[in-house]
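Work Package 3 (structural annotation) set out to generate three-dimensional models for the target panel prioritized at the project kickoff. During this period the team completed the workflow that converts sequence records into discrete structure tokens, so that structures can be stored uniformly alongside our sequence database. As a representative example, we reproduce one entry of 271 residues exactly as it appears in the project archive.
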Amino acid sequence: MGHCWTARPKCSGTYSPGGWPACRPAETPMSAAFPQRSTGLVGKALLVFFLVSVARASGATDAWSRAIERGDCVQMARLLEQGAAPERPSLRGKTALMAAAGRACLDLVEALIARGVPVDATNPRHGTALMYAVIGGDPRVVSALIRAGADVDRQGANGWGPLMIAAAKGRTKILGQLLDAGADPNLRDMFGWTPLMRAAFEGRTDTVRRLLAEPRVQINARDYNGATVLHHVAAKGDRALWDLLVAAGADPEIRDLRGRRPEPPAVQTRP
């Protein structure tokens, strides 16, 4: 009724429940060396060993991943000493260097750099350890990453890079570090905003002053709607920043793509 498609099979003449002949495979060097019973015991032992190894590796990986996602620097350092792979990301794609930088764990950041982890590795949204460091707010961590060769102009999925994050959060000292390291002050995000626009919109006066002191800053740059930094300041109603920017050379006569000039905010008077 059928054939066993093996090399020189030895068929018993009986049939399996599926209807095909129950065939005995040809003898191999392995089957000759180990009788059926001992082969079964060896196979079971190997299977148990494999499953235990996988379980241990999975447990270690899960612990490493959890430590990264929690930003638990103590646990990450402990797992590193136990042999965790320092470059292995969490299950969500975050690296230990990102987590340590975001938590301002300088010792762990330096230890990871010393182990040779890629400083510009990215998460699924193209974020880097330097971006996390800016969020963390520790200038020492930022310096360590810059010394290790971190790309100061790398941008995330939304176009935000380290400088844009520093501008948005008012990290004036860190912003200065990035500028001194050669960061481009005119890099735009997905809407065409520059760091100066973002800092002004967020009301980060000290950060705006630091950007205005940078000769490379294009004060009258326009976003993808044709708006300048003054348009954004006018929308926020910040007269002090308006005056600061105009005194620095911002042009209030530039119109956006809809032909609108920015209107000076009203002067705030005390009652």
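Strands lie at 10-15, 21-24.
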